[in-house]
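Case study.
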Amino acid sequence: MTASRARLVAWLLAAVLAAGVSVSLLAIPIQVTDSLIPLLQAQTAPTWRAAVMSSADSAGYLRPLRIGQIQWLFDVASGHYFLVYKSFHVMLVVLCLGLFTRAVRVRSAGGVWALALGLTVLTGMHTFLGTVWEAYPINHFLEVVVACLFVYVLAESRGGWWVDAAAAVVFAVAALTLESGLLVWVVAVVAWLAGGRGLSSRGLMALTALLAGYLALRFGYFSTGLPTLVERSTGFGTVKLDPVELTRRFGDRPLVLYGYNVVSSVGSVLLSQPRAGVWTLMAERHDGGVSPATVMNVTGSLLTTALLSAWAVRRWPRWRLRRFEQADRAVLVALALVLANAVLSYGYTKDEILSPAGAFYALAVTLVAREWLERRAADAPTVASVTPGRLAVLLLLAVVSGGWAVRAVGLHYQMHQMAHDVRNEWVTVDLWLERQHAAPTTPEGRALVRVLREDALARVAGNPWGLALQGTRVFR
Amino acid sequence: MSEPPPLVTREAVALGLPGALVAAGVVLVMLLRLAGVPPLEPPERMTLSEAAALESDADVVRLLQAGADPNAPARVRRSRIRAVGADLTPLEAAMTSRHVSVMTLLIDGGARLDPAQVPVLWCLALSHRNADAEAWLRSRSAGPFPSDCSRVRMPEVAR
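After joint prediction, the assembly is written out as follows.
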């Protein structure tokens, strides 16, 4: 297979999987929870600037561009809310898979097969699910994933002033959208330290200056501080704790919880346990039986992480001499991102917060697999006979890739389940708004709720009976 | 003279084939969609009773808005509630599946709790030991609430 043909097949593969995710995404109506209240607020904001400024100094966070984007799309939508917000989400999905494919740089048949594995790891990873099955009404976690992949691709490029400028703009937008946006800086720095010279040292200094500016703006000018224990529920051990319980248990020793969250987040990416801080493996065992989904998730992640670890051990002597190749860079960036992402999740941990780390974990797996397969093809002078040892390796590889493929299929199952649940939420939306003390008081507000409700109910998701078939035991 | 390296190693196939099959599955589903065959069952085959049995609140509302009769028995196909199919009113279907919230939607949509229907629903609630449904029925209807259900004509699916 020529390099150009391999690239063509790779892009076709990515396009097909992106189309599949997009179709499932379009089956989900705009949500009630997380989406409706921001939309009602966008409706009442007098101007875009006012919307941004009103959110700039909220306690614990600095996310002015999060509100800015919601407001901008609301103004653009002119009543076509589903079309505009979902189109934006689809665009992010396409960018995510496109940038991922670009980062892999397929050049051979081995690269194509590695990409096939990598795309199932990317989309089958539990951290990816949260980026596509819900939105607020924009999925900012997916935006951060796209930003990180974009800067990684820039770091692997030939460079130029525009590369430095683009990285700076992307970092600024990402950081002012969500705290996770700071991970863009981590990607740039680690890629540079590992030999990626697409970004110049001057560009890196500019990013660092922007990071310093962000910190000054957040903690100096706006004095937003950090989120407290009462912000959110989070998992601990085998249960999820609400803010009241968190305060009772950890109010006088929050560092214990923060440490647990960081370690949990690392484990979540590398081992698929715990999930959002909850050791579901133990919880399910206690409740009468571990689900096949959990067994498959943990086994697949264990084996894939073992593959990465074996690579790291083998390459360590070269790394000590500061000799890095593309796969080395991907592994090192992934490792740094897992740690940095986990640290940013210190307050509470959720699967989707870890989506940048999850995406780079998939990228590292893909590039290591590509390197290994290409060397294997080059080193094998003939098609070797299948010895028992080789058969065992083949079976192991098939178990790993098969498990990830099932998880990738599970993404679609869970998205369709979400579509069903979200439609049902819209039935009792008025009651929900009352409970949230957010019922609209203007005719325009009530009309917005009515339009979104009618749109959701008309968006038939198929017979839920098909979804009820034991799927939750296989896909998680 | 050595042979050229193989185009595709067995290891490559073992690692990449499942992912390629996922992509092929996506293509197949999209082709089926283009041909008018949705991957999940077509919603038009769902009756109001079936939507109630499956606790699909949105479909209950959609079908009521489309003019479905909330009091008419309709087919609930096999395995939706039990192994066999049955003709049930939407309220019976919801009660058999223990979905009280759907019953409220049905009442709001025009379903009647008449003296012929209430004993059936009551006995379904008793047979399922569904205290919520019992309380719901008592709050919505004056009865009758028979203590002996052996004389009540129960739907076959509930036996």
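Observations recorded in class. Chain A touches chain B through 62 residues (CB under 8 Å). The longest helix of chain A spans residues 388-427. We will return to this complex in the next lecture.
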